[in-house]
Amino acid sequence: MPELPEMETYKQFLNMKMKGKPITNIVINREKSINVPVALYTNEVTNTTVLEIQRRAKHLIFRLSSGKNLVLHLMLGGWMFFGNEDDSPDRTKQIILSTPTGDLYFIGLRLGYLHLLDDKQLHEEFAKLGPEPLDAELSQEAFLDLVKNRRGMLKTTLVNQSFIAGIGNCYSDEICFVAKIKPTRKLNELTEQEKTNLYIGMKKALLRGIEQGGYMDDPFFKGDTLTGSYQTLVYDREGKPCLQCGTNIVLEIISSKKTFYCPNCQH
Q1: What are the FPG-type domain coordinates in residue numbering (predicted)?
Q2: For residues 172 and 133, is the Cβ–Cβ distance under 8 A?
Q3: What does the DSSP 8-state code read for residue 236?
Q4: 251-261: buried (b, 16+ CB within 10 Å) or exposed (e) per residue?
Q5: pTM confidence score
Q6: DSSP strand E in 16-170: where?
Q7: For domain 4-125, which architecture applies?
């Protein structure tokens, strides 16, 4: 499932391709991917202008000139491609948004969605989300205050969207590796220095993910060489040597989630 770095990469590319452009046509091939009747959805969105694409947690928000918003969550298996019919992947497209400069194809939205929401509904949608990990407002002091009464395991806490928004299975493990802490540790057992290391590791791991274009396999447009360039440090590397010490990476299942770490570098 795409996490913060993947959605941030999509956001940056979408603003390059679609910001300020009108949506000239819509094709809905899967009605379950939207939240209102097709005719109403089409009428509300067609001929509106995309003012900006924003990100909140693992969601993208297409701000429309009508005052409404398209809210995207790709969930498991979802991805996007921007281009034309000749360039687009030979895959079923659940939704297609057309602009004068190209089409945006939504692919693999079996669980994902592109909902039409007003600002009030948008606020309700995000009401339970925790702070953004890369926001300046989440200072080291604010982070330490956030974790001081937490008792849960690092892995399950980091993927909890009401704690901090946007982190999932992959980057929770990457963060713990950068912080040199086992994801099996409990927050209330960490020293103040380890909590500080966790904060620093969170910032470093997520920024590294964004800089390398995240881990999505498929390019966002023809000629895209950034998307999917991210090389994981520990995630999905069971039995492979640690990039720092050479010790084989270990896999554990924590609350039904695959969890990867180096038993030598992480304590």
Answers
A1: 233-267
A2: no
A3: T
A4: beeeeeeebbb
A5: 0.95
A6: 25-28, 50-56, 59-64, 69-73, 79-83, 93-99, 102-107, 113-117
A7: Alpha-Beta Barrel (3.20)
